Amino acid sequence: MPYSTSFRVFTVLALMTLAGCSSHTADEAKHRATGETTSQAGEPDLIPVIAALHDQMYSWEGTPYQWGGTELSGVDCSGFVWRTLRDRFNLPMKRVTTSQLIHMGTRIQPEHLQPGDLVFFRVNRQMHVGFYDTDRYFLHASASRGVMRSSLDNVYWKSVFLEARRLPKERGAQISLNYDQQDKDVLAKN
Fold this sequence. Notes:
Layout: H1 5-20, H2 26-34, H3 47-60, E1 70-71, E2 74-75, H4 77-87, H5 98-101, E3 106-108, E4 118-123, E5 126-132, E6 137-142, E7 146-151, H6 155-160, E8 161-166, H7 178-189
Antiparallel strand pairs: 1-2, 3-8, 4-5, 4-8, 5-6, 6-7
Helix pairs in contact: 1-3
C-alpha cells in the first residue's frame, strides 16, 4: 500500500497541531532539555517516531533488496534499519549488521511493542530485522519484495518471529523528515 502525499501532509499537520497545543510542566521541560517528548499521561510521545518511520517508508518503499546495500538503488534489512536510525533519528553510528542490532537496547515482550522498536526474525538460519510501525505492522527490506510494510499477524512472520528490542536513544532523538531537507534546499536557493 503506497503512502500518499496527502497522508504525509496530514501527518505533518497533525504533528504541528499537537506541538502548538501543548502546555509545558516541569517534567516536560526536563524531557525537552534531554530531547525526549512525552504525552499528557507521561508516556513517551510516539507521534514524531511514527511520522519519521512513515516518512522513511514513503521515501524507500519498493527499493529492491540488495545484500549489503544501503542506498535507494538497493538495501538489505539491516541497511534499511541503519539508514533510518542515521537519516531520520540522527543517531551517529557506523553501519551495523542484524547480529549487532540484536544486542542493542533492551529486549521487550511482543505485547509491549511501540513504534520504532526493532523486531527480529529467524529466516532460514539467518536473522532479519525491521521496525515496528503501528497496528501490528512492521517496516523492513524483504529479500523478495524490497522495502515494504508487513503484518506481524501474517502466519509466516508469526512462525519466524524471534524477539523485539527497544533502542533508548531513538526516543527523543532529533528527528528529520524529508520536508526538512527540501526546505533547506529552497532556502539555500533564495
